[in-house]
């Protein structure tokens, strides 16, 4: 099993979580700035509906001289506004709204996307002077026309005026408007409130609306644009009272907010959402510490950056799907702080691995049975060096002796005989060292091969190659021997071709020969033909490299090339046909033998 020490990052995570929960409820300015930045960036993704098309909102500008400067042929500003109102009402306009009469140029600042709307309902608009249907300069005319008219007031905000337009559009009066603190209910629509405020999408450019001149409406009736059912926002600006640029800016703000509210493009934020965000933040801190705190600084920083990016995308996704404003400013800043603190306080450490005695013993014995003697020794070395462990390593040393690797056996015996006197090792170790083999990891130093046993016959000749049990020698090559062997796992006879590398070879030569040997085995292993020897396995065993192949009963053709042993022509033709068939099969697979001779044909 693997045991990890308790991660100190959890204490740091709890501190950061508690800190940012407190800062969230106290409206820390930095968190608020991050949330407002994300709102400004993503609120334009709120989709809403299409209750009113942009072109059905018409802006009309009246810019007429003061009464004192008028000649006898010109009408006054009041007369022009009254006449325009009568025309629009007669033609079926749904709502007529006048922008506030002259206001200072700096009335509207910034985007004005967030305006106070507290304590307005169900009272009769306490901060708006006069009744809802208020005539120009006190001259009321709501009894004389059928269309609701509202003129606003000096210093009116864009959002308040837009809200009045929504009320008039639905034919409501102030006493019919309700609010429960979470939203303003006007007929069948609800305009959400967030902490008593209406949040409409931020726009760097106006959403778009129709604009026509005063003269187009008061001129020839046959040339008037369609009026019926449309909403008219009259920008009543007497000449010289306000700059046209500032006036147009306020008109665009009013129209945008009216279209957003009438088409349900306002942000929603339920009161309970803050608690869901805190729970999610807590889970996020736990997962981050669990996954990233024990990693390197780079991995931890990348993980934090991924979380921050995910939090930002989550804000945009909720705007798109439900128009909900999810505040992730505390999570973004908290994750950044947590990553920084962990980098200062927590240095990852490697886990402590503890393996049971029985597990190590079983793993070692299993490796030994598979012929992986070196790995078995490494496993046995993890055991306490008691008598049972010494017996395991002693038996492993005998296995090395069977494979004609006395130097490796000496290494194992020396390891377990440090106190001396274990079994026969005091006599056995000097005997093995006196042989023709080195004591360096079983590498072969002799100038020729030898299969002799030690003089006292206690150390046997090689009886194993890998997992294969040697039955006898059946051939000899320039660099190694060929054995007849048995695979103990499936009780199958195999031929083992071996190569032994002596010290007379350079290391790069040995490497090249091994690569060619394994390549030969790989190529031959891809071929499956009745006249081609099957390759079963390749591997290394100490100083030997071996290839296990199909064992064939019989003899090669080398002796039949002599005159006294020639085979009948029919037999020779049959043999040549089989060889040609095998070579044709190999050639089709892109394999060229390059050494076809009688000695290589069985």
- DSSP strand content: 5-15%
Total strands: 18
Domain module count: 5
Distance between the termini: 54 Å
Q: What percent of residues adopt helix (DSSP H or I)?
A: 25-40%
For the biggest sheet, the summary is: 6 strands, antiparallel
Low-pLDDT sequence parts: 1-6, 101-145, 350-354, 436-460
Q: What does it look like?
A:
The protein is an alpha+beta fold and 602 residues long. It folds into 5 domains: 2-42 and 270-345, no CATH class; 47-262, no CATH class; 357-433, Serine Threonine Protein Phosphatase 5, Tetratricopeptide repeat (Alpha Horseshoe); 464-550, Phosphorylase Kinase, domain 1 (2-Layer Sandwich), CATH 3.30.200.20; 558-600. The chain is 40% helix and 14% strand. It has 16 helices and 18 strands. It has helices at residues 9-25, 29-42, 77-90, 158-169, 214-218, 244-262, 273-292, 297-322, 329-345, 357-369, 373-380, 387-402, 406-416, 425-433, 507-525, 569-588, and strands at 2-3, 57-62, 95-98, 114-116, 149-150, 178-179, 183-186, 189-192, 197-199, 210-213, 231-236, 352-353, 464-465, 468-476, 481-487, 492-500, 535-541, 544-550. The strands form 5 sheets. It has a 6-stranded antiparallel sheet, covered by helices on one side. A 5-stranded parallel sheet has the order 5-3-11-2-10, with helices on both faces. A 3-stranded antiparallel sheet has the order 6-7-8, with no helix packed on it. A hairpin with a 2-residue loop joins strand 7 (183-186) and strand 8 (189-192). Helix 1 runs antiparallel to helix 7 (273-292), helix 10 runs antiparallel to helix 11 (373-380) and helix 13 runs antiparallel to helix 14 (425-433). The chain is elongated, with a radius of gyration of 48 Å.
